Amino acid sequence: MSTQLDEYLEAEIQSLLTDGRIAELGITVHRREHQLVLGGEVESPARREEICRRINERFPDVEIACDIGITRAQAPTEVEEIS
Amino acid sequence: MIRIAAVGDVHVDSDVLGRFRPALEELPDRADMLLVAGDLTRHGTVEEARCFATEFGGLGVPVVTVLGNHDHQSDQQARVTEVLTESGITVLEGEATVLEVHGSRLGIAGVKGFGGGFAGACASNFGEREMKDFVGTTEVVAERLQEALLSVQVDALVALTHYAPVPDTLIGEPLEIYAFLGCYQLGRAIDAAPTTLALHGHAHHGSERGRTPGGVPVRNVAHPVIKQAYNVYQLLSEEVDLELVAT
User: Fold this and answer.
1) Facing residues of B173 across strands?
2) Exposed, middle or buried: residue B127 (CB in 10 Å: 0-12, 13-18, 19+)?
3) Is residue B242 part of a domain?
4) Mean pLDDT across chain A, nearest whole number?
5) Over its length of 83 residues, how does chain A's per-residue pLDDT go in tens digits?
6) B20: nearest CA in chain A?
7) Digit-coded pLDDT (tens) for A13-30
8) Does the distance separating the beta carbons of A23 and B205 come in below 8 Å?
9) Across the interface, which of A41, A72, A76 has its CB nearest the CB of B244?
10) A80 touches chain B (CB under 8 A)
11) Which end of chain B is least crowded, N or C, by CB within 10 Å?
């Protein structure tokens, strides 16, 4: 039986992502027709790959679209005055 | 004039080493100190704390931090604090530190903070023991922040927390989880002191700017919110130089 794309699956994936090994609490999961779309930002490409790998491993029949970005880490060019 | 660089939620592990360092090397030309608003590590292990110290230590400016919820994940927060302190990084939890900058005294009071929610949608110290423990923790932490803020005589005062003191900087997060992202008690503590600026992290999908009910500027410096290595805030300025040019 194929995995149902429903609220319980969303919740299970959120739980998987926040377990001790991945520890990513800021990833969003949205259902779009036959796909699950992952969003948010992480600190390295390795983390993004690990997230997709873990979900594919646990739910091999679920199609994943990964829109997770890597947070930029360049120096700022402006200062904000606090008054 | 004092320039404060700030960021939070950098979640350092070995895979992040080197990502922040080029921007951090420029920091002494841009700011007088770096404040980090918690979630320094990914799982709160000693190894990750060493990675943070490698990436964020030895910058040529003071580095002052609080821990975040991720830094408590492995129940090694005391050892994590030791590793950071041994590396010259100041870790605040219910304490304040004073830095002398260009003849002015800047006080920084810090706590991790905790959840509980905000006016109209907050948890109460009532009912089951677990609920009373939850809100009781929030209240104790906020009292410690207030005491720390009031413990110093300075020209400018910064409150540094991981959890949010106002809901303004949570806009963008699901409303249902606000109670896990911050609490009004932190805002009340900040307003009880002559606070100049409040900095926090934790809300990755939140907004950058807000104010406490008492009018203190609040900035969410979570890395996914500011989308650069750190922000720079200028306090006690006579003339504003909005250009930051590294030499």
Assistant:
1) B171
2) exposed
3) no
4) 89
5) 677 888 898 889 988 988 767 888 889 998 888 888 999 999 999 999 999 999 999 999 989 899 999 999 999 999 999 98
6) A73
7) 988 988 767 888 889 998
8) no
9) A76
10) yes
11) C
Q: What is the pLDDT of residues B136-153, one digit of tens each?
A: 999 999 999 999 999 999
Report how many Cβ contacts below 8 Å link chain A to chain B.
Answer: 91
Q: How far is A40 from chain B (nearest CA, A)?
A: 8
CA-atom Rg of chain B in angstroms? 17
Residue B155 in any domain: the answer is yes
Q: What is the domain count for chain B?
A: 1
Quote the domain boundaries for residue B194: 2-235
Check: CB of residue B15 under 8 Å from CB of residue B51: no
Q: What strands, in cross-sheet order, belong to the sheet with A63-66?
A: A28-32, A35-39, A63-66
Smallest CA–CA distance from A28 into chain B, residue: B205
pTM recorded for the entire structure: 0.93
pLDDT computed for residue A1 by the predictor: 60
Kindly provide the ipTM of the predicted complex, given to two decimals: 0.89
What is the rounded distance in angstroms from the CA atom of residue B167 to the CA atom of residue B19?
A: 31
Q: Which domain holds residue A46?
A: 7-70
Q: Which of A40, A41, A75 sits opposite B23 (nearest CB)?
A: A75
